[in-house]
Amino acid sequence: MSLLTLQDPSLLRSANLIDGRWSESASGAAFDVSDPATGLAFARVPDSNAIDAAAAVDAAHQAFAAWRARSARDRAQLLKRWHALILAHQDDLGRLVSREQGKPLAEGRGEIAYAASYVEWFAEEATRTYGDLIPEPVRGRKMLVLKEPVGVVAAITPWNFPAAMIARKIAPALAAGCTVVAKPAEDTPLTSLALAALAEQAGIPAGVVNVVTASRERTPEVVDVWLADDRVRKITFTGSTPIGKHLARESAATLKKLSLELGGNAPFIVFDDADLDAAVAGLMAAKFRNGGQTCVCPNRVYVQAGVHDRFVELLTRRVAALCVGPASASESQVGPMINGRAVDKIARHVDDAVEKGARVVLGGERLTGGAWASPNYFAPTVLTGVTADMACAREETFGPVVPISSFTDEAQVLTLANGTPFGLAAYFYTRDIARAWRVAEALQSGIVGINEGALAAEAAPFGGVKESGYGREGSRYGLDDYMQTKYVCQGGLG
Fold it and tell me: What stretch or stretches form a coiled coil here (predicted)?
């Protein structure tokens, strides 16, 4: 088993956190956590079952009354302590992210800063959960609107941003006065456990944050407990649309509140009046972050015919210069994919595109040998001649592949861009102000970038429309998703 050395070894946890106690699974089962860059295991964590899941809910339910009774300022101060500890351990946490997820070390450190920004934001927002006083229609009444925490929240997080996603869910829950049971992705559980350890160190009481880990096979057993338990009042999930639909169906019996951040198929549109250098830079930032393994990365690139060839030339030059390698190499800009299944999907998409007439301008192959010690690497790839019937245009590739299509006019590209069940993010580049507003309003997407490739921020609402889900994370709107509205009417005052 490969080793991971941290400056603070206490951050490398290999146990569940339930009611302030670090423990093995009830069955004693465990599973390996592997480094995608090498394929070697470097840790083991509990393979939890229904007993562990129920114990986590028991703890969160028991802790809820006291936690919600704390003043908003008190909760905010504890979140600020957690934020400070996250930043104080940024290097260790960044190494942990990079080792279990595979992203380059600079990106790992950057993700920790990004995760911390959500904790700080919601610490500040905790004291701003204002209600309303409604002008009474008749004398002698007072009509008030109060905001209250929904209750126990179950957070189910993905592997691609193991720090940012858990922080983006837990921080607003705690700020609102909720308690949490969390299940991180089986590929990347260690970062969540480390953040939970720091939350505990910050003074967040036992039972307020509970984390259980489970393998892919055992995950349904854990989550089904939370879906059936009427004490769990909210599910927040980031992941695939099919699983999101399953959660929506199975939570209906107890009418839980849901936040679902699901699949995307983001268009990236370059109009012929765009600043091409800026468009290429924006695409590079949006597409190759985390090796293309992000839900908002451009999945379909549409370039207007008049600038198509020049854009492809500029982009190919930039993509060819990318360094692919493990996080341990400081020069790495694109790391390994998360696992072999991910690489198989990428290869299938490229092969399907070529069979249907696309041209591989660059890349298009798995990388093996040398620095690529595992089979999880795929070459940054540029495809042209992509059409709507190809798999890479219909499904999220989730990898370092840029599929480019040519278009003639605005109406055509809007039809193409909106011709998908998904609507998470969309990007376009233009210098025409009227077009900018016209296209932004026409795009069926929860997030739109105009001449900008980096969209996410803790102060902005993050979420989609159509089959990309509902609910918002980040911003003051994200806090509302963890609260319920109560109307209070007092009479007899006249």
Answer: none
261 counts as catalytic: yes
Catalytic residue among 111, 261, 458, 467: 261
pLDDT tens track for 302-342: 999 999 999 999 999 999 999 999 998 999 999 999 999 99
Residue-wise pLDDT for 22-37, tens only, equals 999 999 999 999 999 9
* Integer CA distances (angstroms), 423 to 83, 241, 264, 266, 401, in order: 32, 12, 6, 7, 20
Q: What is the pTM of this model?
A: 0.95
Contact of 101 with 188, CB cutoff 8 Å? yes
Token pair 């339910």 in the structure block, residue: 61
Query: Do residues 19 and 35 touch, judged by C-beta distance below 8 A?
Result: no
- pLDDT in the model for residue 2: 64
pLDDT band at 1 (very low <50, low <70, confident <90, very high): low
Q: What b-and-e string marks burial along 142-160, b requiring 16 or more CB atoms within 10 Å of the CB?
A: eeeeebebbbbbbbbbbbb
Sign of the CA dihedral running 120, 205, 169, 399: positive
What the block records as the tokens of 221 is 């057993």
Query: Would you say 49 and 212 are in contact if contact means Cβ atoms under 8 Å apart?
Result: no
The two beta strands, 298-304 and 401-407, are: parallel
